[in-house]
Amino acid sequence: MKRQSIFLLLIMFFLFFSIFFYRQIAFDEIVYCCDNLLINIPARIFWVKSLLSGVFPIDSPFLFSGSPFLADINVSPLYPGNVVFLFFEPFRGMTIVTLFHIGLAGVGMLWVTGVVQMTFWSRMIATIVFVFSGTIVSYTNNLPMLQVASWLPLVFSSWILYCSRPSKKTAILVVSFSVLQILAGHIQLIFYSFLLCYVYALIFLRIPFVYRVMRLVFICLATIFFALPQLLPFVLHALHSTRIGSGFSYATFGSLQILAIFRFFLPSIVGNLSEGTEWWQGGSMYGYIGITPWILFFSFLVRRKWSSHELFFSGIGILSFLLAFGSSTPIFSLFYHLIPGIRLFRVPSHFLLLFTFSFAMFSGYALQRGLSKKIVALSSIFFFVMWFGFVAAEDSIYRMLFSLNYSSLQRKLAFLGDRGVQTIFSMIQQNALLFGCGLLGIYAISSRFSRLSNIAVVLFLFLDLFLYARMNLITLSYHVVMTWKAEQERIVQEIRERTEDGYRFYVHPSLYPSPYMRVFGEPWIEREVLWQFRMFRPNLLMIYNIPIVDGYASMIDRRYQALFGVPANDPTGVAIPDTAVDVLRSLRVRYIFLPHRVEDSPLLAHLSFLWENPYIRLYELR
Questions:
Q1: pLDDT tens-digit series, residues 512-546
Q2: Domain check: are 493 and 434 in the same one?
Q3: Does one domain contain both 581 and 603?
Q4: 552 shares a domain with 455
């Protein structure tokens, strides 16, 4: 492809990128929610403070009465991108790093599609599908996951180059990108990415099979060797963590339910998370790639001849899509017993990363073959019929839903109420009407102006993802978050005036539930996060160098959990019973946060009131 075409692709991508993230670029909104707040921000503040004091953080004295830091791969302590936090305020730095990695994913997709010699519009559509998918947007709430996902196109590109031209140069490229992906953080997504890449190499590396396996083993060992400073402490920590040996029920926790298949074709059916209308599947757009790739897939099914790459990406895409349903299908059970390592992770829905990448690549190949006008026309008719059905038979559908013998659904519908159900119906109608009109427009353009059909497909796909994938983009004004942080700092100062250094704190779990009533149709995440600031969700105390007995982390030493005598339901935390007063004393816990109203608890008999504000109370353990 000519250099001018490459520049045009980059310009178009960054134009789409600027439109998609215009509020974060032009209006100073930042990512602030979820694991970014509870894990990544505190960890990076600790990382920066340690480096500025001349010490690399091997261990953290602030979580779980002291815990490994370097060994926690999920906070990516050795990742080069952390350097940004040395120069920017943490929340702003988090947003800069997030946008950088999304841009990196786009550049990687343009490269990988160029390596396999896709045409101009095929490269663009594959890039848009991956970069602006609900998968990548959902990862903006957890930086290590986004970092790992963003490296996938570059890692895969290096493998394609190596398989077509095995040499020291391409092998070094594979190892370099693979090591960077490992350092990026999230081990589950790394494992899935490596599965994809090694399966590809096993199939497409053009040397005899025995030598093929030997080369792959060598590259694997070289990657492990250069990533050893991160992998060795991680593995040693993992062997003693609550993540080991939890069985099939653990591995299938977080499986997609069968009915979730509807949200891949009709995203409005789950509501809008960013606007507070989510009601089903948490309003998740995770795995959403737009309707266009599915139209391209069904168009491609009528083709007689498939290339090896087309078969590979379509096969991996469908397989990973089915694996994401975990215990809902027998396929995951088969892989659980056959593929080493699968049983170590929970939440099979993370296979949707491989589905998203594979279908993005497949969409590029499919567009090169051309859309089936019949499939486009039939799909348009289908969505128009759906729209008309919801408009004409809304009352009948409403009564039918409430008559179903499905208790979980009935509870959700009761929460929605009449107004909420009407809102969701309206969103579904708009969704179906948009898809119907968009596909009709593509059909008309393809019939009359065939040269413009690819442009129409790309623009419709981007509009689709802009409207629906962004429903999981949770950002807020930088000024608002800094106001919360300033309020928290004032509270910390008051607490320091009433407490002594050298003792640990305990945030009682009864404080965790937000006291703010969730109202359908009003954004609730903002109030939820504000409450986490006000009640000092454990890891936030780490920001102020206040050591705590509990916390929230990707891995916890099961020996520490056993100290309290009660198994934790969630491997990201510890369960501390109110009867464990002696254990708390032995861990030098002296200060305990509790809500204003506390139910009868054995813990209360050992506490003395110390301080309060409108949100929480602080007690001293006698």
A1: 988 888 888 888 899 999 999 999 988 999 999 99
A2: no
A3: yes
A4: no
Q: Cβ(568)–Cβ(551) under 8 Å? A: no
Do residues 175 and 218 both lie within one domain? yes
d(CA 258, CA 284): 14
CA distance 258 to 261: 6
Tell me the two tokens of residue 299.
């168009």
What distance in Å separates the CA atoms of residue 331 and residue 320, rounded to the nearest whole number? 10
**Same domain membership, residue 436 and residue 388:** yes
Sign of CA dihedral 579, 581, 582, 588: positive
User: In the chain, how many domains are there?
Assistant: 3
Q: Give the other-Cβ count within 10 Å of 176's Cβ.
A: 15
Using an 8 Å Cβ cutoff, are 57 and 47 in contact?
A: yes
**pTM given for the model:** 0.93
Helical residues (DSSP H) of 259-372, grouped into ranges:
292-300, 308-323, 330-338, 352-369
Pair 543, 451 in one domain: no
Final residue of a domain: which of 423, 444, 475?
A: 475
CA dihedral of residues 84, 88, 93, 99 (deg, nearest 10)? -70
pLDDT tens for each residue of 552-609: 988 888 889 889 888 877 788 898 998 999 999 999 999 999 998 877 788 888 999 9
Quick one: 392 and 522 in the same domain? no
Q: How far is Cα 480 from Cα 474, in angstroms, rounded to an integer?
A: 14
